[in-house]
Each structure stands twice: as structure tokens, then as C-alpha cells.
Amino acid sequence: MTVRCGRIAGCGRLGSAALALTLVALPACRVAVRTDVTATWRGTGTFTVSVTLDAAARAALTELGIGEGVFYDESAPTSAPQTSTPPEATPEPFADLEAAGWVVRPGSSAVVLEHEFGDPAQLSSLAAQVSGDVTPPLFPQMDLTVEAGLFTSRVGLHATVAPTAELVTALAGRGLASPPSVDELERALGVPVKEAFEFVFGISLPGREAVVTEPADAEAAGRNAWEVPVGTTLDVQATTTARTPAFWVAVTSIGLALLLATALAFLEIRTRDRNRSRPQPRGGLEPRSGPTPRPPVPRRSGR
After folding, report:
1. For residue 288, is it within any domain?
2. String of DSSP letters for 185-223
3. CA dihedral for 20, 22, 25, 26, sign (positive or negative)
4. Residue 177 is part of which domain span?
5. How far apart are CA 288 and CA 79, in angstroms?
6. Which of 99, 229, 262, 295 is 20 to 30 A from residue 136's alpha carbon, by CA?
7. Distance (Å, whole) CA 155 – CA 114
8. Is residue 271 domain-resident?
9. How many domains would you assign to the chain?
10. Spatial contact of 78 and 62, defined as CB atoms under 8 Å apart
């Protein structure tokens, strides 16, 4: 009997109770795909794609030749075949990405693809490289904007994520001479593609907290990662703003100038008050200052 995700092939006639118990015991195929964009104030950052399979999904996809040479068994002994140890060369499905500068890190049940970008234009190019020649692409839009003003800096991201069953199937069969069709992939998984694959899109912009205007609902706007079911489209618009060092220098300078002006005004008022409170002499004459002069001493005559 061949057991697949969510279905049983060649089981014959089983009682409904036995079938229900068997289905409960079957593991569900899950393939989690997460993409993350991390940006800085300069418009640089990192674009990361991670794909994680559970044991059932890995076994099902292996039947189609998907993932061969990508995933390995960490618990396998060192004497195991080459397919059970970390591959020395980049797996064939990702060889083109590595040639484009991507860092590929395969694992026992996950593979992580990572690439740094030096400007917003390179981020858009990296998003296109993920889909390759598949159309429509996974990221129809990936625009990062940077506005560096004298007193404020602003970073904005407008991204659209649109996974489809056809796109998922094409990406799953990447590197194969004959990629499977959607029907073949679903037969291997035992469940529809939209139930087996889970997409998550996450962002990390600089600053304390980014302002998310899309998705518009309050619950989604407070997050920095969103689920994107297969067959749906997610549109994300987020911005973050911060004061530049020049702004704080200007504020400090203005504050010091105001403090100095206040101190000078206070001294001027104190001086005027002292002059007003000083007693005035009779006749309106100013009193003589300094020591009282001695009276002249009469000169003695020598006669």
C-alpha cells in the first residue's frame, strides 16, 4: 500500500471508521515558503527566501525527482550515500541563482536562499530572479524607495506577491528536464497545491515602527509578515520615517541660541532694576564716587 499525503492509494474497501482513523494518522503535506526583505536607511539590505518541507511532502516530491540533491538527512551516518550528506556542490535547481550571486544553504528539510542588495534597483532584480522565466512572476512588483532629506529620511516598500498553482508547480520543478504539471504534482502530494503550499511575506524596515497602509485592515496593518494563500494576491505598502542628524543639530543650535538670548535679556532686566533702585542725590547731581579729598594743609612760613 502506498501512503501519500491526505490520500490512500490501493486501499480497497475499508470501513468508514477504519478509513477515518487512518486519515487522522496520516501526516499532512506542508511546504512553507517564506520571503523576507530587510532594508536600511541607505536603500541596501538582504533578500531571503526559505523553503521548508515536512517529511510527508519531502517523500511525495521525491517521487517526482523534486529536491533530489537538495535535502539531506542530518541524522544519517557519515558512511551513508552522498544523497544523505550535505552536497558539496550547489544543487542543480539553484545553480543559476548561485551564479547570480545568491548564497544557497541546503539542509535536511529546508533550503535558504539569500542575496544582499546594494540599492533599490537591485532588489527588484533579485525578486525577478526568484521566478526566473516563469510568468506571471511571484513578485509582480518589488519597489523600494529612499528619500534622504536634510532633516528627515524616508524608506518605503511597495511589494506585490501573487503565488499561483502554475507558478508553484514550475518553481517546484525548477532544474528538471521535464517539470511536472499541476495535476501530477497534486497526485504526488495527494492534496491540492493551494492546501500543500503556504507562502509568507515579511518585511523589516529601519526605524522603530513602519507605517503599513496596505493591507488596509487593522489586524494585518499591525504586522510585519503576512500569509499569502496560493491563488490570492497580497499588496504591501509600508513606510518608515526618521529625523536626520542635521535635524537634531539644528534643533540643538536653536535651543542654545534661545537659552543664550534669554540669559542676556535677564541680565539686562536686572541691570535696569538696580539702576532704578539706586537713590538719587539732591539737585539731580550724581554723587561723587571715590574717596573724600583731604582739605589743603596750610604752608608754614620760614620767617
Report:
1. no
2. HHHHHSS-HHHHEEEEEEEE-SSS--EEEES-SHHHHT-
3. negative
4. 28-244
5. 112
6. 99
7. 21
8. no
9. 1
10. no
